[in-house]
Protein 1
Amino acid sequence: MAHVITGVDDDLDTEVQPGRDTEPSRHRFRRADFIGQHLELAGPKVSVVIPTLNEAQNLPYVFAALPPGLFEVIVVDGRSTDGTVERAQQLRPDVRIVLEGRHGKGSALARGCAAALGDIIVLLDADGSADPREIPAFVEALLDGADFAKGSRNLPGAGSADITRIRGLGNRCLGGLVNVLFGTRYTDLCYGYNAFWRGALEAMTIDCDGFEVETLINIRVARAGLEVREIPSFEHRRIHGVSNLNAMRDGMRVLRTILRERARKKPQLAAAVAGGHRITPEQA
């Protein structure tokens, strides 16, 4: 069951009114267009963005679990040396390859999101930790009226086989700080499995390079007043290879991002920036 987090307001600047469209919708989709585990062609076009760096051994597992009916799969490669790009093209001839600009996950996601052409964008890790079979649950939350569907490992039915004790403690402390400073109710701050209507990109403005990107996105969509719903997600262990994440270094980057965003002027952005690409619950 999704954990609903409505658009939030803080005491910095102008008032935000969650859930009110500021312009007529250009595209409307019905929940009836989303059938079971298949993303029907009549429904929204779903783009999946997968950042990679030497993930050739993991891609067969990730690609095999992708649901049918996706509009496009985009691999954003950080100039891998293990044949990741060639493996992706072999496994899925229709894959779109985008080369990372600067080094880092944030830079890769920014490039991938900018290249995506779908109505809905899903961010998915390439190491096998995030289960692609959960994508329909994220899409359904968006069709139910959410602007942003956020994976959480801490909801009932969710969990993690990968997170270490120190990373879990850091995630709880940093998440608690964000909830206090920004009035959010996030249960999992630093998890990268997310989906959103492409109109929400205006609220994110991804301008960081590293693993702090999830924190940046979560803070900015909340401050913009978007409707966020958390989706139970289970994080598996990386299948092959070693993670590039460093708990202390990247934890400090996350902390600096939180403090910088708190000092940043609140965006003059209406809640429903995704209004042209979503439906309301009454229309479902």
Protein 2
Amino acid sequence: MYWVQFESYLPSRPDLHHTYDSPKHATIGGLDFYVDSWVRAKDAKTQSGSDREHIQRMISAQGYRMPEGTMDVRLVHLLDPAKRKELMIIFSENLKPTGFTAAELSEGGKDFDQWPALVNKLLDDAQKRISISAEN
């Protein structure tokens, strides 16, 4: 699944800025992205009114279902020096082919030590599949 979102703070709120502190970064189309990743079970709690809830409703409305578990990487590029505009891409893959469950790969799970290798492959897949280019 590819989830692409642009966000910008309103001019009426000049005090607000995006803050990302992930030490991991990736480059796509010459742009620097902050990288965060996680695993998620299909039945994990979703905050009411959240962007995720909206995406899940859109997917369901089209007759699709989420897999039992996903591994997700969020890529965020800040579009302006003031850090008020962002491009966010979330790239998700079905967890089933890995043979692990979200609970097993989550922090404290019995296979959490396998997560770093899986997330590196996931990020590599995202960088191969996502293309960004500027057109004049």
